[in-house]
Design brief:
By secondary structure, the protein is of the alpha/beta class. It contains six helices and eleven strands. The protein has a nine-stranded mixed sheet, sandwiched between helices. It has a two-stranded antiparallel sheet with strand order 5-8. The chain is globular, with a radius of gyration of 16 Å. 45% of the residues are buried.
Length: 238
């Protein structure tokens, strides 16, 4: 299977030289669970045109500093692309911004949350365990996050797979549409997460918030579990 990764954001310039890009982070994450998976990247953030979604085998949309409500020229075409993929039955996975734009494109609603920034290791209660999780579904999962926007209304036919008080719609199953999305960042390891939070100290994060977020990363991370889930989901729709 070939997974087409839609790159919608770049590693911040201040730390770019020290880390791989987001598509490579996803390749590293998913390849552990699916060594035969093939990958290609389409970078809308760099001006690359989106392909016809009906020609693809699987799609993953990355995180981004953009908001779904921003007036960037690639936002509306990406929403059309998501709807086209849904119509064609192509499996889609959204992460952070990808989670938000998938929900928005398919009939949900996203806002800049009045709760403010979510950073550090967040723990979510699992509310549903689809068959493609293959029993690999604990009561809670803990994964790094970095977001202010949140999904506040589900698309028609969608349901919540994971939640917390801070993020009630943290993971979404889109029902008859072959798509799932996650607000968290399973591609972010502890080292990258800490560097990202430090790079935003004072812009806009407080020193205390950054310190607390970095300290939280000392707990076990469920990143690889989500890597397995993503690989299993994509394979289940083939």
């Amino acid at each position: 299977m070939k997974l087409t990764i839609i790159e919608t954001g770049l590693v911040p310039e201040a730390i770019r030289a020290d880390f791989v890009d987001y598509p490579e982070m996803f390749r590293d994450l998913i390849s552990v669970a699916s060594p035969d998976m093939e990958f290609e990247t389409v970078s809308v953030i760099k001006g690359e045109a989106l392909p016809d979604p009906s020609t693809l085998e699987g799609i993953l949309i990355t995180g981004s500093p953009a908001g779904v409500y921003d007036d960037f020229p690639w936002i509306a075409p990406l929403e059309d692309f998501i709807r086209g993929a849904a119509k064609a039955g192509v499996p889609q996975v959204g992460i952070c911004f990808g989670h938000q734009i998938m929900a928005e494109a398919l009939g949900g609603k996203v806002i800049k949350s009045p709760k403010g920034w979510g950073i550090g290791l967040h723990t979510y209660e699992m509310k549903a365990c689809p068959d493609w999780m293959e029993g690999n579904c604990p009561a809670t999962i803990s994964v790094p996050v970095s977001h202010q926007d949140q999904v506040v209304e589900l698309p028609p036919g969608a349901s919540v797979m994971a939640r917390s008080d801070f993020t009630p719609m943290a993971a979404i199953d889109y029902g008859k549409t072959p798509a799932v999305s996650f607000q968290c960042h399973p591609e972010f390891n502890a080292e990258y997460s800490a560097a990202l939070y430090r790079s935003r100290k004072g812009r806009p994060l407080t020193e205390a918030a950054v310190h607390g977020a970095i300290e939280s990363l000392n707990a076990p991370l469920d990143n690889q579990r989500l890597g397995v889930w993503i690989a299993n989901f994509l394979s289940s729709v083939r």
